[in-house]
Design goal:
The protein is mainly alpha-helical. The protein has two domains: 38 residues; 88 residues, Arc Repressor Mutant, subunit A (Orthogonal Bundle). The chain is 59% helix and 5% strand. It has a two-stranded antiparallel ribbon. The longest helix is centred in the N-terminal third of the chain and has 30 residues. The protein is elongated and about 80 Å long.
Length: 150
């Protein structure tokens, strides 16, 4: 009796074959969400660097009113509010006075206050300055805004 030992055709499959991608492992949607979070993190780092550079170079930069409007204002109502504040000057205006002056937009006094606060928040985030400041119950343009509008 002769015994023939043949080599096995089965070879360890290590390394051969296609490996699963990250998207296949965690699921396509989860993978996309991970990538979006990563990109948002990188964008926020770039924004932080840009703001840091702007803060350092602010003394040597001159801003135009159109730039301030683009950064702080969301629509023409915001532009009109800034225009009202600039017309009155350093004395300031009550939010109710601004609302009555801009009656065609149907604003209430608290709408005016909220819009000014939102514009202040946007401009502070971008340039570290405010559009208007409270003086008692009135809103008045800041010296930064007055210097730009001159």
């Amino acid at each position: 009796m002769q015994c023939v030992h043949g080599t096995s055709e089965k070879v360890a499959q290590k390394g051969s074959g296609k490996r699963r991608t990250r998207a296949e492992k965690v699921g396509r949607l989860q993978y996309i969400l991970e990538r979006i979070r990563l990109l948002e993190g990188k964008i926020s780092q770039i924004d932080l660097r840009t703001r840091t550079l702007m803060a350092g170079l602010r003394e040597w930069m001159s801003f135009q009113p159109s730039y301030i409007q683009k950064v702080a204002c969301e629509d023409e109502v915001d532009v009109e509010i800034i225009t009202c504040l600039m017309q009155k000057g350093v004395g300031g205006l009550l939010p109710s006075a601004i609302a009555t002056e801009l009656g065609e937009y149907g604003l209430k006094r608290w709408d005016v206050t909220r819009r000014i606060q939102r514009m202040n928040k946007k401009l502070t985030k971008e340039l570290g300055q405010k559009v208007a400041e409270k003086r008692g119950h009135q809103w008045a343009p800041t010296s930064f805004l007055i210097d730009i509008w001159e």
